[in-house]
Amino acid sequence: MIKLKYRLSGCLLYALRKLKLKKTFVSAVILAAGSGSRMQSDITKQWIMLDGKPVFVHSLLAFQNCGKVKEIILCVRREELALYDGVAERYGISKLKAVIAGGPTRSDSAFRGFKKISDKSTHVAVHDAARCLVTPEMITKVLRQALTFGAAVACCKSTDTVKICDSNGFVSSTPERSSVFLAQTPQIFETEIYRASAYTAIKESLVVTDDSGMAENAGFAVKAVDCGKENLKITEPVDLIFAEAILDMRKKQSENDKKSAQK
């Protein structure tokens, strides 16, 4: 009887989530306004070529190919705005609604992008363009949790022991590894949760390094969603080597899957 009760409860939750998913209008705000100084490159990292396409285009295509995403706002460096002319047509990004100048900080850029989203928006996904190995499946995985809990963040479980250090570099504590997650993007929120969190942060002059931090500060629960290590961020030159290897692995896997399907 108890098992049946849990099964019915699970089926009802699944049905409600599926119904909610059908009514969802996801706006994606993709951030490409950083300087990328650690890349030690003559061009900003957004424009570095990776498998024949600029880094930021890989991120755009992932959201373009995610069915529940209805629009994309791209935030870029003001001095590079002209470089983005024709990008949507060149790479088939039909969901690209606007390309705007970002602000002096990441949170400023995200909020500027947020102010451009549609009035129809039920959820907003904020994503760093430098996390160019994100997939439509990862986006959907995070979205499903945001539908249930209101806010969700892509993460990676830490496989290393983490040390918390003081300002002098001495270890002050060692948290339990099983509870440590490394934050990634996308981070997806009910639109009104994001709005409330952003305005609370502005009112309190809060400085955060990611959007889930704003939601946590405003008192909202945020669900961590393990998206694995492939969802890496292009930050340093070595990251391009890892990214190329992952893309090559995905291509081989896709080819193997096609061969298996033909047998």
- Give the integer mean of the pLDDT values: 91
Name the CATH class: Alpha Beta
CATH superfamily: Spore Coat Polysaccharide Biosynthesis Protein SpsA, Chain A
C-alpha Rg, in Å? Answer: 20 Å
Low-pLDDT residue spans: 1-6
Provide the structure class: alpha/beta
Which CATH architecture is right? Answer: Alpha-Beta Complex
Query: What is the terminal-to-terminal distance?
Result: 45 Å
In the CATH scheme, what's the topology name? Spore Coat Polysaccharide Biosynthesis Protein SpsA, Chain A
Overall number of domains = 1
Number of strands: 11
Helix content: 25-40%
Coarse morphology: globular
| Separate helix tally | 8
What percentage of amino acids are in beta strands?
A: 15-25%
User: Secondary-structure element sequence?
Assistant: HEEEHEHEHEHEEEEHHEH
Largest sheet: 7 strands, mixed
Spatial ordering of strands, largest sheet: 5-4-1-6-10-7-11
Secondary structure layout plus pairing:
Blueprint: H1 2-22, E1 26-32, E2 49-50, E3 53-54, H2 55-64, E4 69-76, H3 87-91, E5 96-101, H4 106-114, E6 123-128, H5 136-149, E7 151-157, E8 164-165, E9 171-173, E10 181-190, H6 191-203, H7 211-217, E11 223-226, H8 237-262
Parallel strand pairs: 1-4, 1-6, 4-5, 7-11
Antiparallel strand pairs: 2-3, 6-10, 7-10, 8-9
How would you describe this structure to a colleague?
This protein is α/β, with parallel strands linked by helices and 263 residues long. The protein has a single domain, classed as Spore Coat Polysaccharide Biosynthesis Protein SpsA, Chain A, CATH 3.90.550. The chain has helices spanning 2-22, 55-64, 87-91, 106-114, 136-149, 191-203, 211-217, 237-262; strands at 26-32, 49-50, 53-54, 69-76, 96-101, 123-128, 151-157, 164-165, 171-173, 181-190, 223-226. The strands form 3 sheets. Strands 5-4-1-6-10-7-11 form a 7-stranded mixed beta sheet, sandwiched between helices. A two-stranded antiparallel ribbon has the order 2-3. Strands 8-9 form a two-stranded antiparallel ribbon. Helix 3 links the parallel strand 4 (69-76) and strand 5 (96-101). The chain is globular. The protein starts with a helix and ends with a helix.
